[in-house]
Amino acid sequence: MAKIVEVKLGEYRGVSFFDTAEHACQRNDVAILETDQGVEFGRILSDTEKVCEGQKEAVAGKIQRLANEPDMKIIEENRKKSSEAMAACLRKVQDHKMDMQIVECEYSFDQAKVIFYFTAEGRVDFRELVKDLARIFKVRIELKQIGVRDKAKIVGGFGVCGRTLCCSSYMKAFHPLSIKMSKEQGLPLNPTRISGVCGRIKCCMAYEFQVYRELARDLPKMGEKITTPQGKGKVTDVNILKRYVSVELGEGQVTKVLFAVKEGD
């Protein structure tokens, strides 16, 4: 029986759902795919034992076969051709004096299309560039403008934690992020502390946000006035994980109040 699995399409494109077409697939297998845009390759990300329920309407195509040795040679050849295409595109961008940065490029598996990924401050008129590239490579040209988070995902690197960037290692999609997440976790609102290499809020802000919010819901807020065994005072610091608050009682006197975890938390 055919199953629906998650597949990372191509080298730098997103994750889509594909029908296994009854092929015996395993996680991390490289597969040749039938799509509306032609024949592509991708890597299976999901466990095939776990059917992706409710995704039939989102299916982007089906698995034609698992990649064999000739297929892997084509993929490697396309990577080499992509390096040449990248160099040619960079020269043309300089010739046209265009305000854009080419990040990466990739050939489709059937070599019918070359996709160039670029960043720019605003909209870019790249029609003449596309014409030049089409004359050089004799294939369909696609220029795709991406954001700084997508650039970090493609280029890769290491975070301040010393580990490979989450976005370029295992993340399938980006989390919605906001400054509120760092506020509710009691983190300093210093851009250099809460920003990743892409310049945006770190993706890891979203990992424990829900836990922090649940733990903090029965703790007093910063600046709130509360009563302690030593008297009334104003909350000057909140430690969410250790569940205590520092309270200023006046005349330089500060006390710490510990809050027990409620049942069900």
Description:
The protein has 265 residues and is α+β, with helices and mostly antiparallel strands. The chain has 4 domains: 64 residues, no CATH class; 75 residues, GMP Synthetase, Chain A, domain 3 (2-Layer Sandwich), CATH 3.30.300; 61 residues, no CATH class; 41 residues, no CATH class. The chain contains 7 helices and 12 strands. Helix 1 packs across helix 2. The mean pLDDT is 88.
Query: Structural class of the helix and strand makeup?
Result: alpha+beta
Distance between the termini: 42 Å
Unreliable stretches: none
**Major sheet:** 5 strands, mixed, barrel
Number of DSSP helices?
Answer: 7
CATH class call of the largest domain = Alpha Beta
Rg, nearest Å: 26 Å
CATH topology of the largest domain: GMP Synthetase, Chain A, domain 3
- The helix/strand series, from N terminus to C terminus, equals EEEEEHEEHEHHHHHEEEE
The strand line-up of the biggest sheet is 1-2-5-3-4
Number of domains: 4
Mean pLDDT: 88
Q: What is the helix fraction of residues, given as a range?
A: 25-40%
What is the CATH architecture descriptor of the largest domain?
2-Layer Sandwich
Shape: elongated
Tell me the number of strands.
12
User: How much of the polypeptide forms β-strand, as a percent range?
Assistant: 25-35%
